[in-house]
Specification:
This protein has 255 residues and is α/β, with parallel strands linked by helices. It is 29% helix and 29% strand. The two termini are 47 Å apart.
């Protein structure tokens, strides 16, 4: 059974009283952040409150029909549990979760792993394109502009089991693919580690002018730092945790 993650999703709450608002988050008892407001040509107003700590939000939409009372509807965030490999999970949500729980990465499908690596490269300043799932010519991600060299690079991703290492054969294949594509740099990113012989071969190739970069689990962990972990783990927001957060916030505001 795959690991799961708890995330916020929209829940329609229906009609509500005009001017209804909320100043306290019902999940962690934190004061909601600054009110977001939009006005649409005197026809309707839109309001949004967001908890700065756990991310809960509440929206109210007021419409002003001609010769009729104000009609207000509300939508709020609710917690849902998703499989860590679910396509309904945004990459940023997945990345934030994996930064805390790296071992869950092994539950991802190879394609989802490629999507994650592509997003990590993009957030680290590269301009990237995710290739099609099949017949990709041995390249999973095309880096049209490498942040370090400014040139054209390619990325191959290998989501392997924890106990499996990447051998020298994969490095040789990557070199051939790089030459075939005319890439300035070739990256091999894995969820695990490389064998000693594979690392030695990569060093030898770099000495000969071939830019082969091997990125193991430890390197990927560092790259996941681009994701946010300021928010608490939502599935751990028990009643006791909410009370502790509320007390902490009250102490902060009293200083």
């Amino acid at each position: 059974m795959n690991p799961t993650i708890v995330v916020w999703r929209s829940s329609q709450t229906g009609r509500c009283e005009p001017n209804l608002f909320t100043a306290i988050c019902p999940y962690c008892a934190t004061a909601t952040g600054p009110l977001e407001f939009r006005e649409f040509m005197t026809v309707s107003n839109w309001f949004r409150w967001r908890c700065p700590l756990c991310g809960w939000w509440y929206e109210r939409h007021d419409r002003f029909p001609a010769d009729s009372p104000i009609v207000s509807t509300a939508t709020e965030a609710c917690l849902v549990t998703l499989d860590v490999d679910s396509p309904s999970l945004a990459i940023v949500e997945l990345g934030t979760h994996l930064k805390r729980n790296y071992s869950d990465l092994f539950a991802l499908s190879p394609r989802r792993f490629e999507q994650l690596v592509c997003d990590v490269f993009r957030r680290n300043g590269h301009e990237v394109i995710l290739t099609q799932q099949t017949r990709d010519g041995g390249v999973d991600i095309i880096v049209t502009k490498d942040r370090q060299t400014g040139g054209f690079s390619i990325v191959e991703c290998k989501r392997y089991a924890k106990t499996r290492t990447i051998g020298v054969g994969a490095v040789r294949m990557l070199l051939g693919t790089a030459i075939d594509w005319g890439a300035q740099t070739a990256y091999l990113v894995t969820s695990t580690n490389f064998s000693g012989i594979a690392l030695e071969k990569a060093d030898q190739l770099r000495e000969r002018g071939y830019m082969i970069e091997l990125m193991a689990a430890s390197d990927l962990c560092l790259m996941l730092q681009v994701y946010n972990t300021a928010l608490p783990t939502l599935d751990k927001l028990t009643d006791d945790a909410r009370r502790e957060i509320a007390e902490h916030n009250l102490q902060d505001r009293s200083r």
